[in-house]
Batch of 4 targets.
Target 1
Amino acid sequence: MNPWTDRGHAYARSFGSLCAGTVDHLLDATGSGTLLDAGCGTGTLGVRAESRGRSVTAVDSEASMVDLARSRLHGPVLRASLPHLPFPDASFDAVAANFVINHVGRPAESVAELARATRPSGRIAMTVWPAPEPGGWQGFIGEIFEAAAVVPIPRQDLDPRFDFERTSAGLEGLARGAGLEVVSASDLRWTWSIRPDDLWAGIEGGIAGAGATYVAQSDLVRRAASGIFEDRCNQAVDPLGRLNFSVRAAYVVAARR
């Protein structure tokens, strides 16, 4: 099962705020003019872009994300999946792809498709999640799952023929392979601050790998994990009652020649 199917609201409440941490970087890098938000999720990047006066077209492959984005954006929101976009060549002044390329089945073809839809000299700004780091939210949830005897589910790794190194260098390689001129390649770092109940809404709602693992467990194991989560959060929250996690993203800005 696609770990995002019909889970737009749970995502918006939880991991949507995590992914929003890079939005201003992507918008600053793509300048002005028409923008394609590829893999728009619930529309956060598009809303921010429209608030800057930009004309936005958004696409996402998941129906509940499209519905939520449509309720928030003035511009068109279409259901479409990379590497096939329903636009003519050179349709947009710029493209933003925020944590999308790490989810597609054909990353190289997908970046090439983003390039195809971009006008000459237009910017394409992309982010992907690299491997988890110690101190991050994945480690926090992982320790809870281990204490609750959560049974791992089978990994759904990408076919090695199509996979890429999940780093800024790996993303840069995809951009160069698509014939793009790389403007910059770096890591972005920030702190993700979230209320425990909002984070747990994402896990309980089945979002991403951690959520898919949780919902696959027995009732007994889920209750154990929930109780341990509550105990750990009581010890980990800051004075405002929030959890704080260090976050890193691989970030590449490229231009179509």
Note: The first strand starts at residue 35 and ends at 38.
Target 2
Amino acid sequence: MESRSRMIIGCGYVGIPLAAAFHAAGDMVFPTTRSQQRARQFEQHGYRPQIADVTKPETLRSLPDADTVVFAVGYDSASGASREDVYAEGLKNVLDHLPEATRRLVFVSTTGVYGDADGQTVDELAPCDPARPGGQAFLKAEQYLRNHPVWSNRSVILRMAGIYGPKRIPRSADIQAGNPIPAPGGGALNLIHVDDSVQAIRLAADAETFSPIYIVSDGTPVDRRDYYKEVARLLHAPEPTFEEPDPDSPAAKRAGSDRKMSNQRLVTELGFQPKYPSYREGLAAILS
């Protein structure tokens, strides 16, 4: 495949391995960052960093002509901006400043845009009814993108399940310490290893034909408590104990949206083959 130029807006937990994968394939990589220090680190990897902040349109006026743009901005609570400022208005600001040369825009969204499915399987055709502010902000961003007169036809929305990987195993410190885990009984946890999220983005970036939206998960939902028990086993920690979360806590709100995500469209249309087809393989690779 011929080399291409790739701009990654928000080069964090997913963007860093994505940049490395693009670079290894011979592509020119333009990561954005708000930090001069981070920009110097990117330069040492052979990238061409851009100082930009999606919440400040004046920093987006000189974006490079990139074949592919991946919007994978994470939320920094210390920034003082709201999730809507970052995800929805931030994407809108980028859309207003993207060079016409851009062939493909990949927007990294979340399965948090869906509502409760009472434990049933959910695909891309299911209605969206997000209960939490993050999901609501992502859904607003998706609507900006799908209604845009230019970029709607050149974009792919990837609704990511819970991303895990090295240095990102939720509750591992609590499990090692023997602290009770605030997890209600039952409820499916939908996951995607960070390496497989990178694979999905690369497939979406280069597909000749594609649907506007894909769910990105490993396709193997797991009961939350079974997941934490496997973490404990691999860490040689005591069997975890559980407690009901505070009704107003993020954990309770996540658990209140019980659904099993289907990745069949991604598998069938884009040829997605997860390296880690379930949490078992993914956790074992990280913790063993």
Note: Residues 10 and 22 are 15 Å apart (CA to CA).
Target 3
Amino acid sequence: MKKTTEKHLMVFSGRAHPTLAQEVADLLETELVPTTAYEFANSEIYVRYQESVRGSDAFVIQSHTAPINQWIMEHLIMVDALKRASAKRITVVMPFWGYSRQDKKHRGREPISARLMADLFKTAGADRIISVDLHADQLQGYFDGPVDHLMALPVLADYIKGKYGDAHGAELAVVSPDAGRIKVAERWSARLGGVPLAFIHKTRDTTRPNETVANRVVGEVAGKICVLTDDIIDTGGTIVKAAEAIMAEGAAGVVIAATHAILSDPAVDRLKNSPAIEVIVTDTLPIEDSKQFDKLTTLSIAPMLARAIREVFEDGSVTSMFDGHA
């Protein structure tokens, strides 16, 4: 008995960021699979899909936003439900990889929680991970399977080039918030037409999370519109101090660009009162109304996620989306 099977794309969404998942499904010209999800009285999470997923190519979208442990657990349970319902291939789409900053041991007796996340998803039944702008490239090696590492750089850089390229009569410069992200800054420079590079030399107190101690600009920024790039804005302390240091060196203006807008308190106040002209982020994480402010511009990551999902489903090339850099 022989049967030629057809591939069947199914898209699933957790409850953390349903707007993004819906936009991705719309771009793929499909519907999100109807899902029942709720908490029991003791806060345990229950998930059930309302239609058959047997033999499907399943893409499970969930943004790891606050309360992060709740949404990661829901994501894991969704994957487990798919595996036990005989989905053929399960791709975890996590625009932001929870715990990604805990990617190595700075001191003894610390965990490497980013690796633990990869192991949990593998154990739950994930075959593949799609994520955007990992905090460190080595996270791709933490998961025992394919990891498609998407970059928001084209989305952010093309917006900045269109808005600030020639508009201010001042040339652009790209500033990395630390020496470790200089390779990313080089890609930014190339995308913006080979503009000059600078970086912030900083020291971090390992006993105090989210805080840096010293800022010094290395490179020429005077008279330039400086694009200050980072992967994450959490409390905003690091990026705002960097913006102040750049302005102190005589820059014509600072534009902050970041992929993941966590925006924990007091980030919004810090960014509002910072010298930055504009703060540009993507919607990998949901930004609630109370965190919106005049300087904030949010760009959609959905077209990039949708294209990556399509390439994976059709056995195409995700790397081709980024000129061979992914």
Note: Residues 114 and 306 are 25 Å apart (CA to CA).
Target 4
Amino acid sequence: MNPNQLTVAAIQMTSTDSVEENLQTAQKLIQAAKQAGADVMVLPEYFCLMGHTDQDKVTIREDFGQGHLQDALSLIAKQNQIHLIAGTIPLSAQNKHQVKNTSLVFDPNGQVISRYDKIHLFGFKQGDEEYQESKTIEPGSLPCSFNIQKNGVDWKFGVTICYDIRFPELYRQIGPVDCHIVSAAFTHTTGKAHWEILLRARAIENQSYLLASAQSGQHSNGRKTWGQSMLIDPWGEIQSELKEGEGFTLGILDKSRINEIRAKLPSLQHRTI
């Protein structure tokens, strides 16, 4: 492959209330994506557990740097020789009744090279459908980006989670990147209305690729998620997508495409505020 190109994959899952089952599914899909040629992969938000209550994730929280989930993810990254943006897992928070909703980035040696704690916490109420993440999640405060090198070429990624995509100022704070990574578990209701248009807007205004990994379908806890994991290019065009069900979508990041778009429409240079 051209050294200025990088193959990436977004894993899509219908996670259950069983941590072990979810880890097995993630490992199977990651292995398949690796065989298809992906070097960088992202798992969806809450990939490890879609519990029956909000408190379920608190019961499996881990201290940063140690724990079953982190060990398993480290091993998966190492075995498959990939960079893995590991969806989200619950890490310890100051309040013992809460967690940090955290995305860890593992390198091909299984080492954590970046950590992002979800900043914006989802709140929604429509009839009997209600979500209030602030009850069990302690928000983060720091934007996140990381760099990798592949075949002598540097690549920069931004990391955000689900509800973050409604806050464009966060992406401006992250700054220019080659690709924004989004792990999500968008509800079917909000996903149907806003998922695609929000993701395409974030790609267009930041003139970067955007790789989004989503939960999809009917979960054992009764929740229904939207799906439509995808790779969007810096012009806002969908390069690949998986609308429903478990699996992955594969795509290629191309430096020349980024440079072409930023040269013909240098909007990032035209910013005045």
Note: The mean pLDDT is 97.
